[in-house]
Automatic annotation (TrEMBL):
Flavodoxin-like domain mapped to chain residues: 5-162
Entries under Gene3D superfamilies matching the protein: 3.40.50.360
NCBIfam families: flavodox_BilS (NF045594)
Higher taxonomy: Bacteria, Bacillati, Bacillota, Erysipelotrichia, Erysipelotrichales
Protein name: Flavodoxin-like domain-containing protein
Alphabetized GO MF terms: electron transfer activity; FMN binding; oxidoreductase activity, acting on NAD(P)H
Organism: Holdemania massiliensis
Source superkingdom: Bacteria
Length: 170
């Protein structure tokens, strides 16, 4: 059994999850670890990780997933908004719907991740323009709560996700 871990990370959040997955996989099974590459497609099981963009995996990761055929897949993601399992599942389900049907999705995992400083600046600019709009206060509070993520609990949950995937393929 060959395993690939393919991921894209803008702020380092998804890279942290990829490293957490790698830490619990048998090293002799690891075939490829890195950004999207055709070489990764030679594995039997592919862990695919992404940051989220408009409620989906990033476009480069969607393009990679479109190339996957007859593979066992395990999806993982980070997103700036968070702490709501329903939201995470919606992202994973929308992404799964774009994957060719001949693949088997074994499991998925998502957690909150910190956002770029530019996001906070955009929220602050909008709040200054609309000081009575509670939306901007809420978004700024979420930004602040995301700063510590992924945290140790997120990483432990991600590792359990990877262990669970391994039990499904044995």
């Amino acid at each position: 059994m060959k395993i690939s871990i393919v991921y894209q990370s803008l702020t380092g959040n998804t890279r942290q999850l990829a490293e957490a997955v790698q830490a619990v996989l048998p090293s002799e099974m690891l075939f490829y670890i890195g950004t999207p590459d055709a070489e990764a497609l030679k594995a039997d099981l592919i862990f695919v990780g992404s940051w989220t963009d408009k409620g989906l995996f990033s476009q480069p990761m969607l393009d990679f997933l479109a190339q996957c055929h007859n593979k066992s897949l395990a999806l993982f993601a980070t997103c700036g908004f968070g702490q709501a399992e329903e939201y995470y599942q919606a992202i994973l389900q929308r992404t799964a719907a774009k994957i060719p049907a001949d693949n088997l999705i074994l499991a998925s995992f998502a957690c909150q991740g910190r956002m770029h400083e530019s996001v906070k600046q955009r929220y602050q600019t909008m709040q200054a323009k609309e000081p009575d709009n509670p939306r901007w206060t809420s978004l700024l509070e979420n930004y602040d709560s995301a700063l510590s993520h992924p945290d140790n609990t997120d990483l432990q949950r991600c590792q359990q996700f990877a262990r669970d995937v391994l039990t499904k393929i044995k």
